[in-house]
Amino acid sequence: MIPFIIRRVLTMIPIILGVILITFLLFNVVGGSPASMALGKNASPQALEEFDEQRGFNKPAVLGWWTSTRALPETRFAEGLTLSAGTNFPIKMLFPLQPDTVYRLRCGISRMAGSVSWIPASGVTAVSPAHDSAELIFRTGAKGTAMPVTLFVQHGTLDVRSLLLSRRMPHWYDSQLVHYFKLLARFDLGTSLATNEKVTTMLKRGIGPSLALTIPIFFGGLVLSVGLALVCAYWRNRWVDRVLVITAVALMSVNYLVWIIFGQFFMAYKLKWFPIWGFEAWSYLLLPVIIGIISGLGSNLRFYRTVLLDELYKDYVRTAYAKGLGPTAVLFKHVLPNALIPIVTNTALALPFLYTGSLLLESFFGVPGLGGLSVNAINSSDVDVVRGVVLVGAILYVVASLLTDLCYAMVDPRVKLK
Amino acid sequence: MWRGVWRELCRRRLIRACLWVIAAFTLVAVYGEVVYRYYQAVDRTPSYQQVNLSERYLPPSFLRHPFESVRQAAGESAFRRVWRGFGNLAYRPWGTDNLGRDVLQRTVQGARIAFLVGVVTSLIAIPIGMILGCVAGYFGRWVDEGIVWLYSTMESIPGLLFILAISMVVGKGLLGVYMGIGLTTWVGLCRLLRAEVMKHRDRSYVMAARSLGYGNGRIIFRHILPNVFHIVIITFSIRFPAAIGTEVFMSFLGIGVQGEPSWGIMIGNARLRLWQGMWWELTAVTVVILAVVLAFNLVGDALRDALDPRSRERES
Lengths: 418, 316
Prior knowledge:
heterodimer, A: 418 residues, Jelly Rolls, MetI-like fold, 2 domains, four-stranded antiparallel β-sheet, 56% helix, B: 316 residues, mainly alpha, 14 helices, disordered C terminus
């Protein structure tokens, strides 16, 4: 048993790492700049840079010494900028560079040969067509610098193609990925862009209302659908079963939104059976819970019915009938316990998803839970909140599947052999 | 085998009706695409986007024109009367919305988008799932471990949130919907195919192919894949309506399609107007979605019954 548990726990680690990597890839690498999302399109480059500095977005993504900076946007001259001998070409920074930091200015040059020198730094760089860039590496003073760096052409003519300024990091491993891992190690999921609140606080606040909504939906739905599935299995291929199956398919096909809109409009607004919106007393949860149960009923009923019918055609059932048991005894004493294995798996693996709440129900009925929170966060591109919810949900799922497997190993000796 | 399956499907009347619904849905979607392309080519505001403030909140035509309006007027020929009645009924037949836009035309455009989403996301998800599943099942060992790691990672992330997060990162719009749904929903197919290919890996026909010196690619895709292809078909028929539902949901939340009449956007719009008594837009969209999704679900079930030998035993 102990080796099995250890093996199973070890398989959990790469999956959690994978989830962390996927969220990182999604939000830090593929995603656009969170700074411009938060501060708007008209924010000054300096403000954007400060925002990135605070949240560590101005580090290299994975690993590396050099990172980009907004002080000089990467420039490309489409038709080239021709400089003849003796010209100064000042390159202006948009805001003062960080003090006491090493910068690298790389100037792409093409076509012609010559030599250049940089001001303030000394040294002459010969440029030949083979060697197509001039580089300047300089360290800023204690106060930082806003003064332009000048490119001086000593002789020959040059065709400047591009300019790129990068900043050198103190360590090659000082990157966003490492920063992200460091934050996670402190259980810090970042701060919301919209409200400037810690994501962990927001999650803690939202989890209660979410569970208050999803737990009744989950268990109500479970009891109802397993019960109806038993009815189907008992009178299989009779009209009760047929009607239930067709109803289930029809229920499945009605869009979730439609359930909510009809429920809210007719049962709450027109008939006044339920309160329409809010989260003040338990009665406010009734309607969303009913809608949640009904909308999930179709697919659950079909799933449990299939599970039960799969068992019903096994050999041991024939044996049970042969020894003279009635249909009720066979169904409840023999079939149901065996069918419980897939049912419990399905249930256990659905449990972690209860935590994210119901995206739609919460935003429609004004339940201040995690579902509504994430919908708002996605609408306002609040990266840290979305990432926090996704990450915690995934980790809960991994843990739940671990626990399920361990329970099986305890109950069913066949599992360990695999 | 496929001809037998087709005959099996056509034998049942309900399934035949469903196949007709799917065919009609496809035709309407193609028609919607043609209309959309036309308006793009002539560079005009499409008629389904045209705001017409003098025709706001027109109910469906069969409510606007009760039977008196098509009753024979004095000195009117029978032909003219039928023509007039037809014209009355065909003018804004499903009514107009709060900006005087034609609900029928918008529903047609919604069908176009739903169809596109179903097809494009399948074109993204099914090849990924098919290739990864076959490769993992056939090669086993570290290839298998890598792919299993990938899909267990993907499936541990809460599904809908993952889709929404991807489309948020890609950017609001159809591309985001395609990417979000397409890149996350290959997991189920991959897992099923992997398990099935594993069973086939050591069968005698594969051994025979191997001993003939065929390459792995040829064995996987020419020999094993046709034998497990029914799984792909069944998955397609299940994920198509699911993708439509997700698109409706995303567009409703404002993360999906932008500036075009998708079903989700129509529901969002109709929901606010329901309180002012405009019920027909919501009803139209609901009924259309119900018909399409129900047809796909029933055909999917019938396909599974026809293709999966296990369930056939159960019937008998």
